Amino acid sequence: MVMPAAARPILLPLVLLLCWVAPSGQEPAPVQLRLAGPRGSAGEGRLEVLYQGRWGTVCDDGFDFHAATVACRQLGYTAAVTWTHSATYGQGEGPIWLDNVRCGGSEGSLAECVHNGWGTSDCHHGEDAGVVCSGQRLPGSPPQAATSGHLGEVPGLSLEEVRLKPILARAKLSMPVTEGAVEVKHNGRWRQVCDAGWTRNNSRVVCGMLGFPREKHVNTSFYRKLWNMKLKDPNSSLKTLSQKNSFWVHKVRCQGTEPHLARCPTQVAPPAPRQQACPHGMHAIVSCLPGPTFQKGKGKGRSKTSPGKVLPVRLRAGTHAGEGRVEVLRHGQWGTVCDKQWDLAAASVVCRQLGYGTAKQALVGAQMGQGLGPIHMSEVRCTGHEQSLGECRFQDAERSGCRHEADAAVRCHVPHMDFQTQVRLAGGRSPEEGVVEVLAPVQGRLQWGAVCGAQWGLNEAMVVCRQLGLGFASHALQETWYWAGSPDAAQVVMSGVRCAGTELALQQCQRHGPVHCPSGGGRFSAGVTCTAHAPDLVMNAQLVQETAYLEDRPLELLYCAHEERCLSRSADHMHWPYGHRRLLRFSSQIHNLGRADFRPKMGRHAWTWHQCHRHFHSIEVFTHYDLLTLNGSKVAEGHKASFCLEDTNCPEGLQRRFACANFGEQGVSVGCWDTYRHDIDCQWIDITDVPPGSYTFQVVVNPKHEVAESDFSNNVMRCRCKYDGQRVWMHGCHTSDAYGADVVNDLERQERLANNLV
Question: Where is the SRCR domain (predicted)?
Fold first, then answer.
């Protein structure tokens, strides 16, 4: 419904409306914005736009803090705290009006920003953008729908950003900046905070916002001497500035559990009209302790928690550092956390435990993908002072009826490391692809140059995409002849790059000392293509354990399997078609737990036709099957080509989209799974030549990393296998990251002892 310009806006419990007059030029009609979605704090929600009489959403592609700032100001707030993507506040309905919104931050309305054009979008509602705005309302803005408990509910404070201004020379040279004077941005202007009444709790909140888990003691007497020296310096303007109230934030009082300084009671100006803001004080000084990932020396900090309460935590499937689905290790097994009562306090405990700052967002509804396996915790309640999630109160999820559709996730504040300025992509068709160019020392000075394409792979490409804030790598290219690099970066400055894939910057990876690139760069320079979301394949270990059995299969039924090399080499020397092969058969069910569909690397035009089985192979080796001794030596192997990669089943509410029938598109949709039954060809290991004994059965999905995934650590599944010559027992099946290291080591040690292999 379009309201007349003179009418008062209608206030709904979950929706905030704001009219504005369109600028002259392209937008002749008035446009309204509103925040919608699940009930939460005022000033946050899914961003919706009324255009041509219809409400629609904004796609998160290209949406950033500048766009959020413009939207919040248009909505009547003075600033944005953060923005959200992937339908954090639920999926909207109707058209997606705006896509690839690019704002400078100073525009008067969202419509003034660059975008694809009204209604021109390739997005779906799972990519709806949202915003979190600060609580201070601009004068003359319409009344809010709700006023209680909103972010930044602090009289006189409109907090936009917080930073530490380094004072000492060593602090200025360090990255990240961990010590300095606290400055907050208020109404577009930076102010210093008076140290009168400044507490360690205040420091804890500031450090958390800047991505640091803890604050540390700082020698304020030394800084006081520097302050007094500056006041006496005739060339310094500090004395004049410090006497102005506009230079200061008068007082901040935090409890130490707040995730954001905007939630602390704050006075920008002193209560009395002519009172000086900071008459005898100086700027507040804060010193923060970075987490292990961001420390130059990788020393491990000692935990202050009692060992019995420490629950190890990890994040999975996040696009950026410091975000992902929350998983905890209980009873030796990794599992997820239910989102019932999941909030910023609990999310911040997770973030600090992992060495990050406080949480920017506590995400619900499996927004970082669904886990597989147990759900360990539900209704987690934290005060904010806990050192570990295990210290918080919670219920066992078994009683709560939670499912993986309700897996909790977090986005944490991480320190600013300036890594993005040390790498760039050039020559691509979009900002997400191109030749990799790095800033590296050459003869004593930093210089832009190319990376040698030899040995370049997905792990290295993943690091580049993460470093640029572009998510995951979808392709790693060793030849980039179709992309023109920058003229000033033609020289190869880095070669032999080998990354584990978890590094925050390419400069942290191993590489050659002197550059050695026989191919010479140029068309053989390394390149990448990045994507915001990626699939994540995980094998259902329990199904393998339940379906394994032996079959003695006649050779006359194995001609096609022999042609596809699904039998061991000794089959070549048998008297076909007489005899049989002993096969260890099982079913496999492969789930896509990621946030993008799993698709074959090659298009249908490049699939390989196999005449004997009369089907196409979209990926020649989709899974490896191995039987290993307990010392790790391979005694038998098998492989499975993806002749039919499809959505065998999907959870309730999800539609099957990939089917192999009639040469259809192949793939596995997000949340769905592909099942290879035990009774189809090549779904086995040929163990004809294997003697009785105890073994490790191993399955590796996507073994050559042909298709990029958000997490390769869960692609391996292992079982303990006992074979007596006639029967087989499979037990203890688990994915490689499902159990803690202690449990895995104990299992292996028990097997070795039982078989005298120690």
Answer: 33-134, 162-289, 313-413, 423-531
